[in-house]
Amino acid sequence: MLINPKNIAPPPYADGMWHWRRHFISVAQIRDRRDLDEDLFPLAHHLEHMVHNEGASQLLVGKCLYDLFYEPSTRTMSSFAIAMKRMGGMVESISNVQFSSVAKGESLEDTIRTLACYSDVIVLRQKEEGVAKKAAEASPVPVINAGDGKGEHPTQAVLDLFTIYRELKRIDGLTVTMVGDLKHGRTVHSLSRLLCLYDGIQLNLVSPPELRMPDKLVSELRGHGLEPRIHDRLEEVVPESDALYVTRVQLERIPQDQRPATIPYIVTPATMAMAKPRGEMILMHPLPRDSQDGNPEISVEVDADPRAAYFRQCEYGMYARMAILSRMLRAD
Ligand code: ASP
Ligand code: CP
Fold first, then answer.
1. Domains and CATH numbers, the chain
2. Which atom of ligand 1 is nearest to the CA of 185?
3. Is 85 left (phi over 0), alpha (psi -120 to 50) or beta?
4. Distance, C-alpha 266 to centroid of its chain
5. Per-residue pLDDT tens digits for 210-256
6. Residues 155-202: pLDDT tens digits?
7. Stated pTM of the model
8. Ligand 2: which residue has its CA nearest to atom 6?
9. CB proximity list for 258: less than 8 A, separation 6 or greater
10. In angstroms, what is the span from residue 296 Cα to ligand 1's centroid?
11. What residues flank ligand 2, with Cβ below 6 Å?
């Protein structure tokens, strides 16, 4: 990884390649892995050092971020807000639209146009796939898609890859196993697309038949050179996995009568006993894990395992979002 703490300017090739500097709606906008390997990741790593050593930077003084969330969030909303504040910027938010003029029937477009009068970037989470794009079309300031229904969650994919890079020191040639609700989970939709930029990736998709990754997306991945292997049983692929990426069943997107009776896969210490050793393997989860019935998809006994990277993943997320914001909001 290239790190030059003295220089945070984008590399010279960046002009014309940052197709997503205006809005960041889909990972498909990142067409060149150098945008990650040679720019965002080193910058995020540099900002991580800065936070640890100097506390804060002043990169975004005078800039304002608006968090607009039509769906619940802990990590995305908070990490964007703190990322902005750590760089000297300001933050305002609407996290319960029922107390905004949305409750009086205001359209998304009018809401966006209004918030754009007060801010320099809008971070939007919405319930429906495709709505982030519509919002971007209406917005005079950049819109970042913080999750649009079962569509995409592009900044999560960037932070997921940054996590893999920080923890395993490489991405090319890895075996990545995604497990759980691959049908409705937007994080796996974005991450699998982003993995297409890398060489020699083996992607395993583990889910019950009713929660499989959509055929259309699997074909898209194949068209980009990935050959996902579809599995029902987690045990079959744990031993070969370098990154095991667990997801929650997205109950809010599944009608009551079609919900699975139990959580289809639970990662326990016994699962981890089959996995590669520390330094060669990480266990990831975008979080939240669903603990409502006391049996989350990663059992809490696994948390102490050094390969359990999901809370470190949250922290890397803040640095990745600092990097994204500084690239989107600074001209240099
Ligand atoms: N927090 C992630 C998302 O909003 C994953 C999840 O909710 O399961 O997509
Ligand atoms: N990973 C993620 O998007 O978490 P939140 O839903 O808490 O924002």
1. 56-149 (3.40.50.1370), 154-314 (3.40.50.1370)
2. 9
3. alpha
4. 22
5. 999 999 999 999 999 999 999 999 999 999 999 999 999 999 999 99
6. 999 999 999 999 999 999 999 999 999 999 999 999 999 999 999 999
7. 0.94
8. 73
9. 210
10. 14
11. 73-76, 156, 286-288
